[in-house]
Amino acid sequence: MPRTTTVESPGCPPLRALTSDVLGLIKVVEVHGKVGVPKVVEIWGSPDASRAVVATSFADCRKNPLLAVARKDGVVELLNSLSGDTLNTFRVCELGLTNHSAEEDPVIGLHLLRTKNIELSSGFCVLLIYTEKGKACLRSFPTKDDVSLDDSVVHTFKNWDVSTAGKVMCSSVDSKENYALFGGKAIELNLWDLESCSRIWTSKPPRVNSLGIFSPTCFTTSTFLVKEDHRKVVAGTNNYQVRLYDISAQRRPVLSVDFRESPIRVVTEDLDGHTVYVGTGIGDLASFDMRTGKLLGCFVGKCSGSIRSIARHPELPLLASCGLDSYLRIWDSRTRQLLSAVFLKQHLTNVVIDSYFSAEAPAGDVAEQLCDLEADDSAIEKSTKEADKIKRKLESKNETVESFELTASEDEEMDKQTSLERKETSKGKKSSKSLKRMKRSKRKLENKNETS
Amino acid sequence: MIAGKRKNCGEDGDGEDHEEMIKPRLLPSLIKNKEKRSQVYAKLKHDKKTEKRKKFMARKAAESRALELGEELPPKKIPRTIENTRELDETVCQPNDEELFADNDTDEFNKILKQETIPKILITTCRFNSTRGPAFIQELMSIIPNAHYYKRGTFELKKIAEYAKNKDFTSIVVVHTSRREPDALLIINLPDGPTAHFKLSNLALRSEIKNHGNPTGHKPELVLNNFTTRLGHRVGRMIQSLFPQDPFFRGRRVVTFHNQRDFIFFRHHRYIFETKEKKDDKKAQGAKNKTTTQDRVIARLQECGPRFTLKLVSLQHGIFDTKGGEYEWVHKADMDTSRRRFFL
Lengths: 452, 344
Description:
heterodimer, A: alpha+beta, four-stranded antiparallel sheet, 17% helix, B: Rossmann fold, 2 domains, eleven-stranded mixed sheet, 30% helix, repeat (chain A), WD repeat (chain A), WDR74/Nsa1 (chain A), Transducin/WD40 repeat-like superfamily protein (chain A), WD40/YVTN_repeat-like_dom_sf (chain A)
């Protein structure tokens, strides 16, 4: 008999992902149940091509998660990622960037600083915004309309030029948010200290090859490889290379790997501190071990369009990718198997994963759960302590996984170690499962309280 | 040998009880004696033939009986084809999709399709171009109104795109020839993409078509068939944007792009509506023109050529850039896992 249905996907664990597309829509995709099928739950915004989303940044925290969205017409919006309410909007041209207009010098990206979100409860968040011509702006913004900027709190407000020539195409901020990385077309990678707004490191192009051929620099994407360490940087280039830079070692790339015949569009680091996921312009998705530069494997599916964004789940071994083929795909990052795919109709530009989502908590019965919460408060404290312990252990192990010149045997050992870590983390997950559920409901309640 | 295999999978419906009879029997291919084998095989074949004949006669009898009695005819069986057993595809456009309309209103072809700008096409070739290439381009020029041919020279395609953008062209069509035979078509939409790359095959020029007509210079009508999915929709709109959106209907000229199983068939026709006297007029003539002659309008087609088939290889986001380009869709070998999956 002819096969009239598509092959069934294995389904994926509970998950909440937000995607943004070229029509300016933000779609919320949720997976419910143990082995569920992702579904579009909510769509925020109305279709309008001039409001196409250029970049998003997501502060993934338990209460008050924030989503910052930069649009094509030069508007930056701050959204509550649970309800989709717009908290604040402003135009980039009002920021005091010199000679700025939305047509000539569009916003390329933005970054929501998470560690400086201490003031978040007070209604402020800090954003790093940068434009194509290399103007960067670090500034705090009110997340409520009625709060004005001239409050008693000290606000950061810095403008500076990253470069004067060339086109900025990528940027990233390290996890402690002290350093920012910029790169682009005809711009070598720059590392900037965000405190003093000074450049502390610049990369050098690799040497010409034996034929004397030099390829012009064009960085399309960059990321920090290790969470705790700002010195290791991975970048993808337009001429098919994934490069590893070590700031403490040298200015030229330590390692450079060619991947197929298509520009690298996106590089995302894994939690383990040595794996990166690479997406290209013709829809190839692969993972690399950056200690050795080995290709671990490709994510084979029916990816047919350029990959624009990859998001790694902070706890589960999950990977979400999206791009010009209008599909949001969810992968198992260990087995590289496609778990499920959703067709979202538009060219997608960005995907973020909300890690504090748990499918079991229903929308209603919040009060009931609150009673449970209070009763179980002591239990929570215990489990958080456990989780902390495990985290500490992991960190100490991660520090050992830092040297990059490794022999093959050592490499294997490392793999064993990482597998051990995985086991531990999975144990930790089990213990903290009940915890998460309660966290979720608590978070919802708090939100409700605030809005009321 | 093949026929022996087919015995098991062929003929469904009424033939089942017959098959059950055969099944315990030995397969002819397993018999080693040739004479015996051919005997058994011949018998099998004969049985099959008679069975088929019997079924056909039964069907015919039922039909004629129904006709006589004035009952409803037995329902006709729909043959199972690859198209109507196509794999379920979620990307197929739905008629009530709001997002689709919003997307249509803002895409790159929107200006031309809303008749805000008039399409202006630049046609050029690959660097080495001879015999069938120029002939094909000449006919392409007669099909697409407002098309201008430019010699390729040794210019880079990116430079040509730049030039065409400055001269307000809306599309570039590049005919690629290999061994003096056109084998690929590249359509670049200006000013900001997309770029579609088609494989071109089965080209028949006008002179190679029997009883071909010669097209007039009127603006042609356009028929786009079966572009169902989101990708197909986009490709269809791209093709549509090559032609002016106000056809001159009196010119009675049709250009057809028919998509079937991801192959896009191009045909070019002239049509005419003719009034023809009815067939039973012969009897009327026998009765010496006493009955009124009833006129019947029929449409006649004449093919003008050329005739060719396109297959989408890739659709690139933005203007032609093979090195640093992003693709919206690329055909990859690992997509071909089923004959029943189509992308357009």
